[in-house]
Structure formats: structure tokens, C-alpha cells
Amino acid sequence: MNFPLSASIEGILEFIKPTIQSVMNSAKYGITIDIRPQIRKRTLDQNEYLWSIYKHIVEFWQTTGFVPDELKIKFLNSKFLHEYFKARFDITTTTKMSTVEFSNYTDSIQHLMTEQTKGEYDPIYPEQPLQEI
């Protein structure tokens, strides 16, 4: 269950007491309660920004012929880049990333491109900050 920061501790306890009691009544060895901060998942705006980065890299490849990590490929598109960069940075999925993790991921992609092209690649940035905690 997720509760907003504005919820009172007393209100939360009253809400979950029946569930806890029910679970305790049927638990053979006890119960585990996991309380942790809620993390915001990456936003749709962040995802759109990622795909605009891929498009920008494809356009850069079309004008310069540059391919990240000197990959021996003849064709480059956004879908390939998505799978390639996930593998390159050891990421299985971007959909479960927090907003902060996702921002770091997009920054890593553009930093890699800038570094490997010795500054020839010009990173793109969103008009507004997309990172939300």
C-alpha cells in the first residue's frame, strides 16, 4: 500500500490494523512488514526524452557516420540504440527505473557520445528539468 506524505501515522495504523490482524491469525511462523520510501518511477516525459536522444544519435550517425563503441554495423536506428545502450550499461529495463536513475542513464548515454566523439556530438537537453524525486 502506498500512502501520501500528508497521511498521519495514526490514520495509516488504523487503516492497516485489520489486514495485519488477519495475516497474523493465519501466519504459521510470524509476519514480515516492509516499510520503505515510495520511489517515483521514470515519467513519460523522461521516456520521450530518451527516444529523442536516440533520434538525435541516429541523425548524428547519418551526417558523420559515427557509431558508438566503433560497432561494426551498417544501419542504425532508435530501437537498436535502445537495446544496445541498455546492454552497454547493464540495464534490463528502463520502465522500472526511478526518475533519478533514469536521468543518470540519459546523462550517461550523452556523456559517452560526447566522450567518444571528442566533443563533436552535441548533447540535447529537455526544455524543463525532468527529474522528480
Word description of this protein:
The protein has 133 residues and is mainly α. It folds into two domains: 1-38, no CATH class; 44-116, no CATH class. The protein has four helices and no strands. It has helices spanning 9-26, 44-64, 78-88, 99-116. Helix 2 packs across helix 3 (78-88). The longest helix has 21 residues, at 44-64. The chain is elongated and about 65 Å long. The two termini are 19 Å apart. The model has no long low-confidence stretch (mean pLDDT 89).
Provide tags for this entry:
single chain; mainly alpha; 2 domains
In short:
This protein has 133 residues and is mainly alpha-helical. The protein has helices spanning 9-26, 44-64, 78-88, 99-116.
Helices and strands: which structural class? mainly alpha
Query: How many structural domains are formed by the residues?
Result: 2
Radius of gyration in whole Å, from Cα?
22 Å
Approximate shape: elongated
Largest beta-sheet details = none
Low-confidence stretches: none
Helix content: 40-55%
Distance between the termini: 19 Å
Percent in strands: under 5%
In terms of quaternary structure, the protein is single chain
Give the mean pLDDT: 89
Sequence of secondary-structure elements: HHHH
The count of β-strands is 0
How many DSSP H or I helices? 4
